[in-house]
Every structure is written in structure tokens, then in C-alpha cells.
Amino acid sequence: MEASDNLYFSKEHTWIKIENDTGTVGITTFAQSELGEIVYIDLPNLGDEFEQDEVFGSVEALKTVSDLFMPLSGEITAVNENLLENPTLVNDKPFSEGWMVKIQVSDLDGLSNLLSYEAYQKSINK
Length: 126
What we know:
The protein has helices spanning 29-35, 82-85, 89-92, 117-124, and strands at 7-9, 14-19, 22-27, 38-42, 49-50, 55-61, 65-69, 74-79, 101-105. The chain is an alpha+beta fold and 126 residues long. The chain has a single domain (7-109), classed as CATH 2.40.50.100. Strands 1-2-3-9-8-5 form a six-stranded antiparallel beta sheet. A three-stranded antiparallel beta sheet has the order 4-6-7, with no helix packed on it. Keywords: Lipoyl.
């Protein structure tokens, strides 16, 4: 993955890529590697609204289920339907084809609560 000025990370291991006022959301390489092979993903519906740090879905791996936390407040504008039939895309390509949802960001001020790539790497390498 390439570090980018418009890519931010939550402490709950989700990432968001900001383009204008749209955010693409997924889980990090670290998160998917800790979970192992993902076998099922529960994602929200179009139009659902979430606050920052609110649970928006879950991922099920062979031995565990983990909640997904929304990195910024917003409304769901797209869901990656490909994950419903091929959830391992999250393992194989978490920052490209493995994205989960797109949101219309309602509060960009929430970016101050997120980590840069460098800060996130430090947080997982403690």
C-alpha cells in the first residue's frame, strides 16, 4: 500500500480514503491478517447513516467475528457487492478491490481523530 495524504486510519483498524466529500472505507492489512481468512461480511444498506466510531457491520473469519467501526460520520452511498460472493477480496486486496463501503462524509472535522499512515504503523508496531 502506498501512503497517501487522503488516506486515514482509525485505532479500530479501518481506513478511509477521502476524495472530495466521499470516503471509501475498508479494513487494514494488519486487521485482515490478524483475523485470518474472511468467510463472510455483513455490510449496511444504502442510505444508512453512521456516526464516527459506530459499528457499521462485521466480518467473520474461520475462528472469530469482528465488528467494523466507521472511521467518519456519514451516509452509505455504495456497498461493495463483490464481497458478498467473494469475501476473501478483503484478505487479498484490502486497499483496492476489498473496500467495503463508500460514504457521503457529513463531518470532515472527524479527520482530527484519525491517524496518518505513519502514526498508524507506529501504533501497530508497539
